[in-house]
Design brief:
α1 runs antiparallel to α2, α2 runs antiparallel to α3 and α4 packs parallel to α6. With 186 residues, this protein is mainly α. It starts with a helix and ends with a helix. The protein folds into 2 domains: 85 residues, no CATH class; 100 residues. The protein is 80% helix and 0% strand. Keywords: Lipid biosynthesis, Lipid metabolism, Membrane, Phospholipid biosynthesis, Phospholipid metabolism, Transferase, Transmembrane, Transmembrane helix. Belongs to the CDP-alcohol phosphatidyltransferase class-I family. It catalyses: a CDP-1,2-diacyl-sn-glycerol + sn-glycerol 3-phosphate = a 1,2-diacyl-sn-glycero-3-phospho-(1'-sn-glycero-3'-phosphate) + CMP + H(+). Its EC number is 2.7.8.5.
């Protein structure tokens, strides 16, 4: 299997996760802001690697597997570190909604693929909006400190509520699309 640029971008997204985690917790000036920049670059590669792979016809089974895994790992690790840093029941519920949805939809997609129905639960526009709000919210919360007097963390926290609502909406949409097959027992 050749290492293409799209696959390399996905691998780099996985590799940056422990760096973001470490920077989040070290007591260095601007460590969180550096973590945010790395997180943002990783989030951008989520779009870029797929775009390049399709455009250059460099898709692979391994890349198709690793891309969503990298995204879910990045989001999950960051949600857990944010929750550990500022524990609250509300943030715990939001993290559970987002992480729970990812587990549910991943399992649903795997099951549907076994039945040859993978396209019934393809990525939707709602899912793309969910990802955008989620990535933006988490990045702002990692940044934490106000920027030019703007309460970045608070805005990110509010956006995380929007992401959670879109998360639930997209999960319902996926389950609704799969319901005829689920109802019939596959």
């Amino acid at each position: 299997m050749p290492i293409t640029l799209p696959l390399l971008l996905t691998l780099m997204r996985v590799a940056v996760i422990p760096v973001v985690l470490a920077l989040f917790f070290v007591d260095w000036p601007y460590a969180r802001q550096i973590a945010t920049v790395l997180y943002t670059l990783a989030g951008f590669t989520d779009w870029l690697d797929g775009h390049l792979a399709r455009r250059w016809n460099q898709t692979s089974k391994f890349g198709a597997f690793l891309d969503p895994v990298a995204d879910k790992l990045l989001v999950t690790v960051c949600l857990v570190m944010l929750l550990q840093d500022a524990p609250s029941g509300v943030l715990a519920v939001i993290a559970a909604i987002i992480i729970g949805r990812e587990i549910t939809i991943s399992a649903l997609r795997e099951w549907m693929a076994e039945l040859g129905q993978r396209t019934s639960v393809a990525v939707s526009r709602i899912g793309k909006w969910k990802t955008g709000f989620q990535m933006t919210a988490i990045g702002m919360m990692i940044w934490q400190m106000p920027l030019l007097g703007i309460p970045i963390y608070d805005i990110g926290y509010a956006l995380l509520f929007v992401a959670a609502a879109l998360t639930l909406w997209s999960m319902v949409a996926y389950l609704r699309a799969a319901w005829p097959i689920l109802r019939d027992g596959g």
